Amino acid sequence: MAGETRRRGADLEEALLEAAWQELVAVGYARFTFEGVAARAGTSRPVIYRRWPQRSDLAVAAVRHFSRSDLFEWPDTGSFRDDLVALLREVSARRLSLVALFSVQMGGFFEETGTTPGELRDQFLAERKRPFGFDVIVQRAIERGEIDPERLTPRIAALPGDLLRHELLMTMKPVSEEAIAEIVDDIFLPLVTKSR
Amino acid sequence: MAGETRRRGADLEEALLEAAWQELVAVGYARFTFEGVAARAGTSRPVIYRRWPQRSDLAVAAVRHFSRSDLFEWPDTGSFRDDLVALLREVSARRLSLVALFSVQMGGFFEETGTTPGELRDQFLAERKRPFGFDVIVQRAIERGEIDPERLTPRIAALPGDLLRHELLMTMKPVSEEAIAEIVDDIFLPLVTKSR
DNA sequence: AGTTCTAGATACGTCAGCGTATCTTATTGA
DNA sequence: TCAATAAGATACGCTGACGTATCTAGAACT
């Protein structure tokens, strides 16, 4: 911090959480260290220990931080199918976040520290139910009469997100346009559209 | 090994791989160490180094070992639906294997060592296409006229396994009977049965 | 200006895990 | 029986990361 103004309070904490998140995305939870986060944040370890005495505490806080800040515009193409494809494409582009999130989940599972699961699990599962913006484009499609709301059970509603997430986790690569089209056209839409 | 007969050659290697696999299941790849495996196998580290100089080599070999040995009888209930439910139930019961497998995949992703992916990915993806025995019960169902083979695209065929796997990875818990029934009855069967 | 708080830097000690070297000894094959 | 091989045991040194203590100095408040 030679020559730089020292950060304090909320500003510092925000910078620490952002650095922690970026470290998670870069190295995963397995290799997530106080050293690494401190270096990334341009601070010293005791500064971090003061706030988060355990590594898992810091990781969980970083996830929460990410959740609060990861917002984006959802699509509005005029067609449910195209909205959904665009949405899935967007989620796919953010796969690094999913992988990082998931690495924390796995860390919690194997560590059995009981410090990670609980609310992280809840947060994870909440995010899993719907990709961001899904409810909005579903509502539009219902109003346009494109899909049958009676067919939209929780599990079917979760289907596009689930399949995309699965694909991302299995391949660790962006999901191809072809795969997205299959998920939407061959599986999801046949189950929820009225034309059947 | 005080008082025990020393293992040699293939016997020793088998025991090492079994210990390595069990260590993977117990602690995941993140905490997978030569020390841990050596202790579990009742041997010393140099014995392991001689065969697998890198930790990732040992993990990959353990996965291969597991794949060769993890076989089970597949169900034959007389009905495709019930066969499939039983199969998914079986896979769910073996979720620890999936989690261990996946922890190696994630390790490979973040380490970018280039030593893990390649064939491990291929093996992982191959297993992901079909749970064991899926082809057999599908063939029976086709012969019984229960499903329409024309509808069985690769992605739809992969659907039950994908959704089950996703569920397992998201919750880290056995998949409930209710969830299995939803996957089969509400999603998969409507897509592949002739009655629609 | 003086005081308080704490950010940032650094040092120290500990430990787990690795990699390597060395030695003893059991097993197998000639 | 002897020789070769390598399993098993142990010791040593190194590194990364952690946890803690201490100190300096910047920022905010009075």
From TrEMBL, chains A, B:
Chain residues forming the annotated DNA-binding region: 33-52
Entries under Gene3D superfamilies matching the protein: Homeodomain-like, Tetracycline Repressor, domain 2
Name of the protein in question: TetR/AcrR family transcriptional regulator
Keywords annotated in UniProt: DNA-binding, Transcription, Transcription regulation
Domain of life of the native organism: Bacteria
Domain HTH tetR-type: 10-70
InterPro entries, alphabetized: Homeodomain-like_sf, HTH-type_TetR-like_transc_reg, HTH_TetR, Tet_transcr_reg_TetR-rel_C_sf, TetR_C
Annotated PROSITE patterns: HTH_TETR_2
